[in-house]
Amino acid sequence: MERAARTFLNSFSSKLEEPVRTHLKNVYACLTMSTVAAAVGAYVHMYTELLSAGLLTVIAAVGFLFALMSTPDNGKNRQMRIGFLLGFAFFSGLGMGPLLEMAVAINPQIVVTALLGTSVIFACFSAAALTAERGRWLYLGGTLMSMLSAMLLLSLANLLFGSRLIFQVYLYIGLFLMCGFVLYDTQLIIEKRRQGDKDFVAHSVDLFIDFIGIFRRLIIILAEKEDRNKRNNKKE
């Protein structure tokens, strides 16, 4: 374990320039803060009566994201833009409240397992992107976007047919897709910084969306598996 960590750090330092490494540290710091803000949002929905998920939650999240993306980084407004980022993350977490409530009702351990699984998956794919040859995973962009379009059509089709098989395909392909986006977005952030883009706040949004996407799908997969096991045990 220690040797693997040392190898990763050596590869990280040798393949990435100092400005890029500093930029990535800022990106992951923002990602960490966003994840904490999302957790607070989910807690507020589940254990307080202050706010709850709904249409206004979605509007608020989109509003904060729009405010962030429409406010250019000038080096002096970063605190305000980080505030927009945390607002987006908070309301995104608030919106996940009903899903987490469902998972907790089935088995509270599901949330912990999904969070650990998401962290491991995200860390592994991020490490693969950081230590890979320059631009190796950028070719995935076109394929990922095509798959994203196909998934949208699949979800629309399932609204008509209500097929469990289509839902399962949609769920697992979506998980695979989010893992691919971790590779792609990480290397894209590196290339953007090399081209002079220092907006680490906006860059962290992509990784936050990837992290939440993986977490959400793992929650559903684990919840369905646990629910299915309980039903089988009752039949026996």
What features would you describe in this structure?
With 236 residues, the chain is an all-alpha fold. The chain contains 9 helices and no strands. It has helices at 2-15, 18-47, 55-69, 78-95, 97-106, 109-131, 140-161, 164-194, 200-235.
Based on the model shown, name its key terms:
84% helix, globular, 9 helices, 236 residues, mainly alpha, 0% strand
Strand content: under 5%
The overall average pLDDT, rounded, is 89
Distance between the termini: 43 Å
Q: Estimate the global geometry from the Cα principal axes.
A: globular
What is the helical fraction, as a range of percent? over 70%
**Total E-strand runs:** 0
Largest sheet: none
Q: SS-based structural class? A: mainly alpha
Element-level helix/strand string: HHHHHHHHH
Count of alpha and pi helical runs: 9
Task: Note the topology.
Blueprint: H1 2-15, H2 18-47, H3 55-69, H4 78-95, H5 97-106, H6 109-131, H7 140-161, H8 164-194, H9 200-235
Helix pairs in contact: 2-4, 2-5, 2-8, 2-9, 3-4, 4-9, 5-9, 6-8, 6-9, 7-8, 8-9
Concise synopsis of the structure shown:
This protein has 236 residues and is mainly alpha-helical. It is built from nine helices and no strands.
